[in-house]
Amino acid sequence: MAMLMxxxxxxxxxxxxxxxxxxxxxxxxxxxxxxxxxxxGRLSLAPKLDTVFASxxxxxxxxxxxxxxxxxxxxxxxxxxxxxTPSGQSSILWTxxxxxxxxxxxxxxxxxxxxTSPDGKIYRIVDGKAELYFAPGAKYIxxxxxxxxxxxxxxxxxxxxxYRVTAAGxxxxxxxxxxxxxxxxxxxREGRLLAGTEPNGxxxxxTAKNKAFVLYGASLPEIRAVSQAPDGSIYAVAMGGAxxxxxxxxxxxxxxxxxxxxxxxxSTSITVxxxxxxxxxxxxPPEPTPPRPQxxxxxxxxxxxxxxxxxxxxxxxxxxxxxxxxxKKTSMIFSPPATRSFSRPTQADExxxxxxxxxxxxxSRPTTVRQRAS
Length: 374
Known about the structure:
Blueprint: H1 2-10, H2 24-27, E1 35-37, E2 43-45, E3 59-65, E4 71-76, E5 80-84, E6 90-95, E7 100-106, E8 112-117, E9 121-126, E10 129-134, E11 140-146, E12 152-157, E13 161-167, E14 170-176, E15 181-187, E16 193-198, E17 202-208, E18 211-217, E19 222-228, E20 234-239, H3 242-254, H4 304-307, E21 313-317, E22 330-334, E23 369-372
Antiparallel strand pairs: 1-2, 3-4, 4-5, 5-6, 7-8, 8-9, 9-10, 11-12, 12-13, 13-14, 15-16, 16-17, 17-18, 19-20, 21-22, 22-23
């Protein structure tokens, strides 16, 4: 016992540590398991989540539920629309010739509408057979909404317009939001149309054709979904950059090859970079690029006049001793002068001496001397 006591006394002393977490920023760094976190930092039990349907596709873009509980899902990147019964059984309802089905809707009669992109067309699907319903001429159709009176509304991009379709091939521009994309549509309690847009995160309330006002402006660029509660409250889901990601995925997929059975497929490129500061990681500089061989210079062209000129020669010249001690030899290059001739003037030519000096210049051109350092 004495030995145990002595050993325990040799252990370093420890004390309890305390920390306090109360804000949203404190809790958001943790991992949540069946716990929900509110914006004001309150923790509560999370709603129970059950898996209803697994499509096996890269993404489910939109869903719509019929009055009997059947769920229809538009997926990418193979342009498939799935039907999920209330019992959980699923099947492919229709496969489009476009890679993306960004929006689906179901009217009061159970008719399914699906919007394809990037060719911007709306199809009406009955008993698994689809027919072209309306083509607004837009590149993207992000949202569809079926009204109780049978009218179909479509939110499009890149022009940010809402179309009102009353029958097959009969539709008109209902409102132009001035935004790039109309990403969410729904009705409020009084039946007025609500439209969420991108990229300025504006929520419009459209009361009539070409008549609307901004109901809300979010701090995020996109309002993706809009819903209204029984008490009249309106809920909007705001996101950041989702439309741009969709367009990038769409552009990547259209450049790929078509998949099996004639359906287009999408390829996603992932770039993985290593951390140079990691341990046991050797970072080598890239191999230097060898210099490219220079092409030989073309032969110098000379004219006939230049070929007839006397060649220059390098003649060493040494100063005479009578001018002082010998100095360092230098090489001078000069062009040999032309041949000179000079004779003593005769008596007959003495009259020439009275002429100006300029008249006596009978010598050839002066010698050109250029010095080159040895």
